[in-house]
Amino acid sequence: MGSLSRVCMVVWGFLSQIPKTLKQNNGSNIPLIRSSHHIDNHRFLLVLRSYNLKKWLSETLLYHGSNLKGLLFLFPTIGLNPYLTMGDALCRAIQQDSKFPMDQLRIQFFSNPKQLNMTREREDRGMLTFEASVFLSLLEMASIFRAQLRPDEQNMVREAVELKDPTEKQFYWGRLMNLLSREAKDMLAAWKFRQWPENRVELLYELINYVSFTP
User: What are the residues facing 14 on neighbouring strands?
Assistant: First the structure.
């Protein structure tokens, strides 16, 4: 259970209705959901493999579209931690239920258990709450990014884009472009990745841990 839980994500949902994707697998050979529990007609708790998050969310939006409203609270499983337990995390998720009106589907995302103690800071940085379709598009970008760049290239891109000195950044970015594939260079150019603010870059690198590798 320990090794399995380390590759899983927890979803607490408070929605206008329980999604069909909690009750069926929609033909996939590998179940997207490891475990689910319905609290009542509006609240549920589920556990799914982290790399299945994009597929599950995509299917949920496909089946329900604009009819689904409420909040999905996403966070990774928590191992041995003297300061934070899964119970603490669930209490924080439940506390979010009444913070938003039931007018659209929102997602709150935490990539690390420590971030549960930094909700205000994460919100201020634009890295916490998203409209569902926006969050899905971010997962799509993370999937493309991971497919086009090897892990070492991902690290080099991050190092280059985070340089503060403009001259140094231009030099290393130009050098990096000579090392990447044509597809990777076209992707970064189309996204204007070099001009991305620090928070957006950080969020993308968090999300690549929650998408599958599809070359």
Answer: 43, 71
| This prediction's pTM | 0.89
How many Cβ atoms are within 10 Å of 72's Cβ, its own excluded?
A: 24
User: 7 Cβ partners below 8 Å, 6+ apart?
Assistant: 49, 50, 51
110 residue type, one letter = F
Q: Which amino acid is at 13?
A: G
CA nearest to 63, candidates 11, 7, 15 = 15
Instruction: Please state, in angstroms and rounded to a whole number, the distance separating the CA atoms of residues 85 and 10.
Output: 13
Amino acid in the structure at residue 106: R
CA dihedral 175, 179, 183, 189 (to 10 degrees): -10
* Secondary structure (H, E, C), 9-69: EEEEEEECCCCHHHCCCCCCCCCCEEEEEECCCCEEEEEEEHHHHHHHHHHHHHHHHHHCC
| pLDDT band at 118; cut points 50, 70, 90 | confident
